[in-house]
Amino acid sequence: MSEVATHHHDDHHGAHPTGIMRWLTTTNHKDIGTLYLLFSLMMFFIGGTMAMIIRLELFQPGLQFVDPQFYNSMVTMHALIMIFGAVMPAWTGFANWMIPMMIGAPDMALPRLNNWSFWILPFAFTMLLSTLFMPGGAPAGGWTMYPPLVLQTGDAFPFLIFAVHFMGASSIAGAINVVATVFNMRAPGMTLMKLPLFVWTWIITGFLLIASIPVLAGAVTMLLTDKFFGTAFFSAAGGGDPVMFQHIFWFFGHPEVYILILPAFGIVSAIIPTFARKPLFGYSSMVYATGAIAFLSFIVWAHHMFTVGMPLAGELFFMYTTVLIAVPTGVKVFNWVATMWQSSMTFETPMLFALGFVILFTIGGFSGLMLGVTPVDFQYHDTYFVVAHFHYVLVTGAVFALMAGAYFWMPKWTGHMYDETLAKWHFWLSVISVNVLFFPQHFLGLAGMPRRIPDYAVQFADFNMVSSIGGLGYGISQILFVIIVVKCVRGGEKATDEVWEGAQGLEWTLSSPPPYHSFTEAPDPESITGGHR
Amino acid sequence: MNASQKKANSKTVRFLLLATVLMFGFGYSLVPLYDVFCEITGLNGKTGRIVSADVESKELYDDRLVEVEFVTSVSADLPWDFEPTVEKMLVRPGVETRADFIVKNNANYTLVGNAVPSVAPNAAAKFFNKTECFCFTKQSLEPDQTLTMPVLFVVDPDLPQEVKLLTLGYTFFESLDLASVD
Ligand code: HEM
Ligand SMILES: [Cu+2]
User: Fold this and answer.
1) Which stretches in chain B have pLDDT values below 50?
2) How many degrees, rounded to 5, is the angle at CA A463 between CA A460 and CA A466?
3) What is the value of pTM for the model shown?
4) Which of A223, A476, B87, B96 has most Cβ atoms within 10 angstroms of its Cβ?
5) Tally of CB atoms within 10 A around B100
6) Containing domain of residue B1, as a range?
7) Which of A296, A390, A394 has the most ligand 1 atoms within 8 A of CB, as the residue to mutate?
């Protein structure tokens, strides 16, 4: 599809403010997408610094560098920042940039709301990060905020709760915007079953957000009133029950993990067909599998709490539903592999990250299956095995897909090719170090090392040292990514409109970089073909 | 954006906002649902509450005895001593039985507490019925006052045969003013 875009006219909607005001007041989907992505990158490094502190303390047994309370703050803040500050805003950033271009729309459906939903975020995270300097320290009870422990948080407590409220409001607004855009702004001829999978996975993510974030908001509001207004939702003294918090939290929490991963499925489904030069195998089964995963994600929550003392029937129900998720997930992995089967592949950096994703995410899926089996979860629960599991699905899953997507579309965004040599270095250093970092954690967990503890028995020393070295390596390698992005924004070989030889889809018919408003005139319906990715 | 798209957008937004509000409400509705669920299933050690007449009508197994053991604890911020008078007893299902607990206020001021019961194993909880209990009301103790408090209970004869031991636990908490007591 090498039709050269004919949309070079700049818009004439009056003068744009420049400088800082441009960014504060912008309602343009590309500007807001850029803001989201930059914000996410910043949070990735702040959360990453916290991870470095954690791995530094765990380099050797004993308490060396930080006190246990601060260590626990680091664990808690690292998780909150990475989940709500790095991965979720990054997906919203990709959605902002790509969805209007993918569906042939000029902009998002609700541009003003879009501006708000972004600018709430810096506010929320300033509030969250300010707790590091408060009496009593930052929240240290874990990102899962279980009472009664979380109620012992010092002055930081209300700031934690309100920060969660604001992050939630921002992501709900983002979700509403995406769903409205896809439902109402598609170009003529862009039927639902022609949508690129990234768009599909994002609508489903949007519904997951709208259905689950309000439940989290309710749970943390109950914590707030328990602490300050004498309610007793979770206090046994008043007839409440702390275990109920876990049910409510995980009713949100499990859909949340799919919020973090579904857009990654979409991106990988765009990249693999491009570099395999073949249409995606099983497009419609991908759509249905995503829907099935989303549905199942609401009925598996108690696999996070197998050890609270559920009746046998409950344990069995949650075990079967959990293991059932492996079926639609397996369909997806099968389809990606089948797409590559007998294709003529090339291995540019986006493809490398996508392949890394397929292999390493699958490892995370397998450890998830192990954890889903109730009797063995009794052994693994709250050990480093769980830590290894969720870092395989989140770092080598979600973050690898983010990197893949960033390299895939960076030439489109900036109009320049990135430095392929440096990017390959970034990939290889990341993929090696991330495995050195997280693979040994499986063994630590199987041997019984508990999570969220700053010290450990000496028999765990060797694997922890290996893991810390991997951690430092992974951390440093990510600086390369920043260098590559800066270089690419500044200049480089001019990117063609199509950028990649096998590229399919409307965004590649626009110029690189694309005009400020994407499709001011709807694209030719003839040019809209579906099912490629 | 044309007018029909604008209209469609505001319709979508209204629908999704409604969904958001409903899901927020759903989060709160999980609270009563959870209690009802626990009550029906006896999960979470929530015990049944009946009058003894209901139990008397049931067929008794004369030869069956179940061991009932009592454990007590006091929350860290309440300066009370709290003990059962006996640690264990053998109980005939279907027969109302009495157990006594002694509580003492070590503080030099009056304190109000309430005891939260729990029965293990969970599966047996709904067969454990209290006909009278100090845990039904708040207990107010003057400085240094000691109080003996009874529990009257009946183990339902339908208790599964494999259950040989029941544990009844109580934890005393300082009463929260706004809290509802079961
Ligand atoms: C085949 C799919 C999966 C299965 C069967 C599965 C199963 C599980 C189970 C049973 C646990 C609880 C372990 C425990 O605490 O004892 C768990 C934890 C976790 N999983 Fe997964 N999982 C799957 C995929 C994912 C994905 C795709 C993500 C995110 C992208 C994810 C993120 C997490 C996280 C963050 C935790 C830890 C939460 C915490 O306690 O802090 N999982 N998983
Ligand atoms: Cu889960």
Assistant:
1) 178-182
2) 145
3) 0.87
4) A223
5) 14
6) 1-41
7) A390
